[in-house]
Amino acid sequence: MDAYFYIILVVGLVSTGICLAAGILKKAPNDITILSVAAVEVALVVYLVGSIIRVIAGEPIAGEAWEFWGYLATAMLLPPAAVYWSILERTRWSNFVLAAVGVTALVMAARMNQIWY
Amino acid sequence: MKEQHPRTALGDAPARNTRNTGPGRLLIAVYAVFAISASARAGYQILTKFSEAPLAYLLSAFAALVYVVATVSLAKAGSTWFKVSLAAVLVELVGVLVVGALSVFDSVAFPHETVWSLFGRGYGFVPLLLPILGLVWLYRRRPSQGKTAL
């Protein structure tokens, strides 16, 4: 597990925690929950940029390269999709959808780490 | 995910012939994640190592298809889509129970991983939980409860 994984671990868990709490408190998605999911996206962008630099620098990916990029691309689609959906329906339930993004990104980052090393 | 039908402003709306508001949205979101990941995994298995275990990988593809159908049908309104959802969720429940049991008792015949192996242990048992939650949700939003919209 590398630093990128730990960044996503922290950001993802914090985001999930915030969104879960907001959902449990029966709040509609607000700036805080949406921005926490945006932070997950930023963490994934950092992972993306860092990975591109590492590949250019000549570091090999141990597993299947396209599997790694596939996971990363899919993970990066989740936050925008969840935010878009939470804007369509502004109820507490959308906060639980947003909460799912952080843990999903975390699981996918763990898998990406396994593929890389 | 595009939706063209009218939406209610707030959750806990009176029962209509839809299943994509309130908790249903969370359910659809989780189904969508499984549809994507199961499809990708099955596609990868079939394209790269199909001959190793055709049965297991065809099963993976079937599971992926079930998740796709469940996701789409839950997002759609109307009684027909309700029936499609119900069928998909029931197939999923049977699938996870049968494949899960077979992978425990007959691990020789099922040595290769599918989403449903060991009751979905590789996915935090979510595959086992999903159809149960799905059935609860479908029961609560069954068409006879409200007006037959559309």
Q: Any chance you could write out the topology, listing elements then pairs?
A:
The complex is a heterodimer of chains A (117) and B (150).
Chain A (H helix, E strand, L loop, with lengths): L2 H22 L6 H26 L8 H24 L3 H25 L1
Helix pairs in contact in A: 1-2, 1-4, 2-3, 2-4, 3-4
Chain B lengths: L22 H27 L4 H22 L3 H27 L20 H15 L10
Series of H and E elements of chain A: HHHH
Structural class of chain B: mainly alpha
How would you characterize the largest beta sheet of chain B?
none
Distance between the termini of chain A: 8 Å
> What low-confidence regions of chain A span 5 or more consecutive residues with pLDDT below 50?
none
Amino-to-carboxy terminus distance of chain B? 20 Å
Number of helices of chain B: 4
Q: C-alpha Rg of chain A, in Å?
A: 15 Å
Number of strands of chain B: 0
Number of domains of chain A: 1
The secondary-structure class of chain A comes to mainly alpha
CA-based shape of chain A:
elongated
The best one-word shape of chain B is elongated
Q: Work out the largest interface and the residue count of each chain.
A: A-B, 17 and 18 residues
Number of helical regions of chain A: 4
Descriptive report:
The complex is a heterodimer of chains A (117) and B (150). Chain A is mainly alpha-helical. Chain A is built from 4 helices and no strands. The model of chain A has no long low-confidence stretch (mean pLDDT 88). By secondary structure, chain B is mostly helical. Chain B is 61% helix and 0% strand. In chain B, α3 runs antiparallel to α4 (126-140). Mean pLDDT of chain B is 81; it is low at 1-14. The interface between A and B is medium-sized, with 17 and 18 residues.
